[in-house]
Amino acid sequence: MASQGRQLDGMTVAILVSDLFEQAELAEPKKALEEAGARTAIISDKGPRVHGMRHEKMGDAFDVDVPLEKAHPEAYDALVLPGGTFNADALRMVPLARQFARAMQGSGKTIGVICHGPWLLVSEELVKGRTLTSWPSVQDDIRNAGGCWVDREVVVDGNWISSRKPADLPAFNRELIAAIAQQATRRAKAAERA
Fold it and tell me: What domains can be seen in the chain, in order of their start residue?
């Protein structure tokens, strides 16, 4: 059994981005997940390095761990979709990114999405009947796709964790880690029964 501080030992989380993502929405969940014991992998259709944005200013470069065309959804226990307008708008147009998200959803794995990140889920027609939050300008897209948009710091709807913006990251990280830990517990219990 993992210690309380390392409750995600043995779990691997995909962080899927294109380029010019909101840096805090990648860096802070990545750090929190790793501190909880998870391995993380930055997956991208760009590379070998991708770039963060600090709002409208250029941020840091990050190494891509796995090119999107070589990423297999079954190798990951959860998915994080950071926002940033440029990143999210580009990513939603990448068929492999949409297929990756659909496969993760089809397996019932935890999906954490923040800011403009839901655009990928909208484009892959996954939000119908779901309740989530996002950056306010994305609310019409979510509603038009059949989802229920709410203005809250963090929303948990089944296997989805969503938040609005970088200021929400403490709540987002807390709920994301809790959801992945619950998934790990369910997996361990299923293995014991097998």
Answer: 4-189 (3.40.50.880)
